[in-house]
Known about the structure:
This protein has one domain (8-240).
Amino acid sequence: MNDQLKSRKELKQEAKNALAGRWGGAILMTLVPGLIIIAIIMILTVPVTVGTLLSSDYLDSVVQSDTLDTAFVLALSAQFGKTFLISLLAGLLQVVLDSGTNFTFLDAIRGRKNEPYQVIDAFRCFRSPYIWGLIATMLLISIFSYLWTLLFIIPGVIKSFAYSQSYFVYYDIYEGTGEKPGALECITASRNLMKGYKWKLFVLQLSFIGWGILASITVIGMLWFIPYYKATMAAFYNALPNEADSY
């Protein structure tokens, strides 16, 4: 294991430096996309749920039988399918929005962005090839993580840390070469980058639990917590050794 990665204190200080004097924009850049995702989920989920509950098949099955008949099961299956699709859509949207925010923090940490953060920065990945590349990467990560979880929970968690830098890798490869990297290429590079560093990332994330609990109690505290956490994760990636064989 390479122990030369910056300490948690140093990474968090880098995040604070990237946020200094720009907290207002950073809060809006993380808040607005979150509200948009919540609104989309509510708009899509509520009508679907209410429609299923009020459907004639559902009501008849409840009134006429004390057991789950075929119509009732089909209604529940349809509801589950619709809910899954909505969750998938929300997940894909969140990946694209989070990537825009995270890449902006990474640019700031690298000194490439000195101007105030703006809400529009979160939407920077809604263009080709970013949007399709990030979505493909997210889907492949989900499949791999799910398959590993089928073995045991712990291997699935470990692999999630191994794959965690895939989106940052996508950004660096495309920005550095101008060529669109493949999803598998990004995942493989992330695995290489995280060799010996998965535990460090776990401990770093664990160090935010106390702050996260305190922030969630006041709700408003989350407005400060989320940008700080995201900027620290960007600082972590930036501190990883960029080995030639990882890219």
